[in-house]
Design brief:
Layout: H1 5-22, E1 33-42, H2 44-53, E2 57-58, H3 64-77, E3 90-96, E4 102-104, E5 108-109, E6 126-129, E7 135-138, E8 144-151, E9 156-165, E10 173-179, H4 183-192, E11 194-195, E12 198-206, E13 209-215, E14 230-242, E15 244-249, H5 293-296, H6 300-311, H7 319-325, H8 333-356, H9 358-379
Parallel strand pairs: 1-15
Antiparallel strand pairs: 1-8, 2-8, 3-4, 3-6, 4-5, 6-7, 9-14, 10-13, 11-12, 12-13, 12-14
Length: about 375
């Protein structure tokens, strides 16, 4: 049986290669995007520069349904619904550049066909969004809260033990069954393929059976945890793909720039967005760590000082120092018996000494009493 494992692994690799080559891939599958909600208002240029300090940009909506679903998930699970309090809107990465063209940050041209129909763009240079992602122009030097988005690695999978996912809506979703004994291989297949212009957003695993669930909607199953998609099923584990995360920060703007016009990006520099397929898929059930924005903007010297401060140990506050000054309690009967014997022994010794000198103490006390009495009589 063990000798057949290399052969089975070879077949699995071949199968994954064939499936990947046959699917109709219109774009690379989703990678993880982390959204930072900055509650301290700043002008548009200030917000943009603060985002860039930690490798992020102001939130972009070139694909509205994708961003809307991701931010909705983050708002509920990471921001404690604080986005709902931004009644006056927040800065987005949409601006009118020096050539008069509307453009998202990351040098993405504005496409009116992918924004929701209620969006109206009035003449302006910088654009805010309300909580429903309706865009409007604002003066760029107006202080507003803002959201930064940062590409941060691969998606991960949230496991639901003894649970099975089923999606009856075949018009917007479909499933694909494959055979594998490794959940990591199934996660790898789910994270790297697109079929019929649909991305894999979950998979069911049981023993040697893996069922991939493809859907049109970004984070469809993560957004509907209490829906009929989930049903109890023993010996099954449902893995839901999550490609986002978030953090709320009160970080102040790292630079002052109250210019009424937005600063153009340098769109002549091209950056590669290679798909990283050489990833460990063994620990997919743990969410990746999200670093605080305050930590991301620190210099190396500041990070070193913070680490040294956190690692410093006060020698007077260690447990070994405290134990030198405290007696540890021992509730064993043998230990208590020895303690009682020691107390009785000390009482016997010092009590015996006291008893041997008791007659002398009584005599001195009687003499002292007679002295006091005679002195009082003479004074009268």
């Amino acid at each position: 049986m063990q000798g057949s494992l290399p052969f089975r692994n070879t077949l699995l690799v071949a199968f994954l290669s064939i499936v990947t080559s046959l699917v109709a891939v219109t774009s690379l599958p989703s990678t993880r995007v982390v959204y930072y909600l900055h509650t301290s208002p700043a002008a548009w240029n200030e917000a943009s520069k603060t985002c860039s300090e930690y490798g992020a940009v102001l939130i972009t909506l070139p694909n509205f349904p994708t961003t809307n679903n991701s931010v909705t998930y983050v708002n509920v699970n990471s921001w404690n619904s604080q986005m709902n309090t931004l009644q006056n809107g927040f800065w987005t990465g949409l601006y009118r550049n020096s050539s008069g063209n509307l453009r998202w940050q990351k040098c993405t041209e504005y496409n009116a066909s992918v924004v929701p129909p209620e969006v109206t763009l009035t003449p302006g240079t910088c654009y805010v969004s309300d909580t429903s992602f309706r865009l409007s122009s604002q003066l760029c030097n107006t202080p507003r809260p803002y959201i930064c988005q940062r590409d941060d690695g691969q998606c991960w999978f949230q496991p639901y033990v003894d649970t099975m996912l089923e999606d009856p809506d075949t018009s917007t979703a479909h499933s694909d069954v494959t055979t594998t004994t490794d959940e990591g291989d199934c996660a790898k297949l789910c994270r790297s393929t697109v079929q019929q212009n649909r991305e894999c957003w979950a998979f069911n695993f049981r023993g040697d059976n893996c069922t991939l669930l493809f859907a049109d909607d970004n984070h469809k199953y993560a957004l509907h945890k209490q829906s009929s998609y989930y049903r109890p099923q023993q010996d099954h584990t449902a893995y839901v793909k999550i490609c986002t995360g978030g953090w709320v920060t009160t970080l102040k703007a790292t630079a002052t720039d109250l210019s009424p016009t937005p600063q153009d990006e340098n769109c002549t520099v091209t950056t590669s967005s290679d798909w990283d397929d050489a990833v460990c898929y063994c620990e997919c059930d743990q969410p990746p760590v999200i670093l605080e924005a305050e930590s991301l903007v620190m210099t190396i010297e500041e990070k070193v000082d913070k680490i040294v401060q956190e690692l410093h140990v006060d020698p007077d506050n260690t447990s070994s120092t405290r134990r030198k000054k405290e007696s540890a309690e021992d509730s064993r009967p043998s230990a208590q018996g020895i303690g009682y014997f020691g107390v009785a022994f000390l009482i016997a010794i010092f009590g015996g000494i006291f008893l041997m000198d008791l007659n002398i103490f009584v005599a001195h006390a009687a003499n002292f009493w007679r002295y006091i009495k005679s002195k009082n009589t003479s004074d009268c």
